[in-house]
Structure prediction request, 98 residues.
Amino acid sequence: MQLPDYDFMSDTTEQTTTRFVTFITPNLKRFDLAIMTTSRFYGKKLITDLQTGRTAIIGQDDLDEEGFLEFTYKLTEEEAADLKQFLEFVVGTVHFTD
Prediction:
């Protein structure tokens, strides 16, 4: 079987690190997250909510953007505040290399 005539913009394979975290917030919201660290995305993390399958590339600048977590993960303001508090310890500094 021959691959169709696709115009690939990128096709790379790399070793990544994935951290799986499950926690319950003080407001009794449960989060099941997969947090992938990769050399792509300028040091941002690829974070998947395993309950919903929603995924985002997140750095500190995204956490600082009002409404970002609410919109991305379909959370209430209170749930997003709890998630942000946890993610502040996870995302770290973004590194621009280009």
Remarks:
- The mean pLDDT is 90.
- The chain is about 20% helix and 25% strand.
